[in-house]
Amino acid sequence: MLRDYYDTEWGLPVRDERGVFERLSLEAFQSGLSWRTILAKRPAFRAAFAGFDPDVVAGFGDADVERLLGDAGIVRNRRKIDATIGNARATIALRDAGGLAELVWAARPAVTPAPRTAAEVPTTSPESIALAKTLRAAGFAHVGPTTMHALMEAIGIVDTHLVGSHRRGSSGVWA
């Protein structure tokens, strides 16, 4: 499962609102947990959060929160559930200013890291710190610098595949 995700999805560009919202939400749920846990639960997350449709999730109320807290298929953390609902509302509010995907992709650095070993792969960057600050100012929660760096990696904004990896440069974003 992890190898398939790494080889076919991780690091490839995601530029649509729903796709970025889903990845942002899943990265927030992953905070403090293993990515394997989140990836294994992704189908349940998609079902529980209406396919990560921001318009639907933004309308979730108390009954939905209780439903989600009772859903053993997802991570049942009230703060992360509340953050996802609030982040859907913040996503909608960004539409008049270009949208979530445009805001996140605006954090693309001038150059991408070029790690040769796993120890050289960064977990934050000046851009992820700035993105976290910008998103928090726009009403987002659970969007710290490390989480935003992971999002930037996942959707192709930075390429942290190791130099020499068969995936290095595969996003087409970085040569």
TrEMBL record:
Pfam families with a match to the protein in the record: Adenine_glyco
Domain of life: Bacteria
InterPro entries for this protein: Adenine_glyco, DNA-3mA_glycosylase, DNA_glycosylase
Coiled coil: none
PANTHER family: DNA-3-METHYLADENINE GLYCOSYLASE 1, DNA-3-METHYLADENINE GLYCOSYLASE I
UniProt name for this protein: DNA-3-methyladenine glycosylase I
